[in-house]
Amino acid sequence: MTSVQEALEAKLGYTFRNHDLLQRALTHRSRYSGVPPAPQGEDNEQMEFLGDSILGFVVSEALVLRHPDAREGLLSKWKAHLVSAAHLHRCALELGLGEFLLLGRGEDMSGGREKKALLSDAVEALIAALYIDGGMGVAREFVQARILDVLREGTDLAVTSQDHKSSLQEKAQALRLPAPRYSVVHSEGPDHSKVFTVEVRLGEDLRSRATGLSKKIASQRAARLLLEQLKPSESPGSRNPGEGAA
Fold first, then answer.
1. Among 98, 133, 152, 197, which is 20 to 30 Å from 220 by CA?
2. Could you tell me the domains of the chain?
């Protein structure tokens, strides 16, 4: 076991019995490109396949249990967001998964540690590794802690499933304003149930604050509040700075 693997295990709060599983989950196929003959079954593609199925089941299970009155169409919409490459990419970035990946030199040099497809696949492969090594309970705990955190906000998933941060970024570019700046201005509560207050600023005058049970949720809410200030018919100088909390 390497020190890199130990660092990831510390983040996960789980120690693998079979560390080859963890290494395989972190290994992109580019690691063996140009090295004949390429080892069979040494990259994470098969584990990604298994992890995708496990993720889909755990997400479906959680949605049905936590939203027993929701209709199938709405559940399907929420599930599509939670298992999407965009959402898994954000989860991987929050975990810092990119720094642990085993990549080929070319892929590494081209920014592979931040690529959406590569990181989302690695999350699914990691889920499979946790399942094989520790069983469904271990895999479920990871999915609940790292991917289903928005469900702790209950039915607010309908709001958080929209990427307000990206929309705000696009709006800022359209109005020729500087990129939004996010900062955690306050946090309180125990480690397992912290409440974060995030402020987003756009230029010198525009700002908004919001709270949530994760930095991601609070940031999305703050972006949504600031978007509401940026009405299409208004110019940046025609509104007063606002502040809000959800």
1. 98
2. 3-154 (1.10.1520.10), 164-238 (3.30.160.20)
Q: What is the mean pLDDT of residues 42-61?
A: 94
Q: What is the pLDDT of residues 62-83, one digit of tens each?
A: 999 988 888 898 889 889 989 9
Of residues 34 and 137, the one with the higher pLDDT is 137
CB neighbours of residue 192 within 10 Å: 6
pLDDT at 34 over 70: no
Active-site positions?
52, 124
Q: Pairing state of beta strands 181-188 and 195-202? A: antiparallel
Beta-carbon contacts of residue 201 (< 8 Å; ≥ 6 apart): 180, 181, 183, 207
Q: For residues 221 and 241, give the distance between their C-alpha atoms in angstroms, rounded to a whole number.
A: 16
